[in-house]
Predict the structure.
Amino acid sequence: MADDEADVEVDLKQRQMRLMGVGSALAGVLFLAAATINDAPYGPMVGVLGFLGIAMMVFEYTENMQRGISLGFLVSGVLVWLYPVVVPASQRSAIFLGALLALAGVFNFVFAQFSDRLQAFGARLGGGDEDAEEA
């Protein structure tokens, strides 16, 4: 019985990672589209991604869906907000940021199935969690 619950928990975690990847990929594509229209779409896109994240979160809650896409939008919005703060003006590229967000989303979607194995591997390297050694 405990194994069934663990399998369901892993499946839900993988699904959430995939949904978050979908949200990040969509945010990246939206940002790429905005970057082709405007050279510095950072400010408006923070608002757009924040709005989409909150709207999607309300939709996920009211439809009793698993959260994930909203997290992808919100995390992408935070990254878009931080990018101009961290990167000097001479090295900024809106196209690069949009592509980075889209690729990060695709990476999350594709490699979500390996998340439990990578977590167990990290726990073994750290010498911590005994549950990871059993896996």
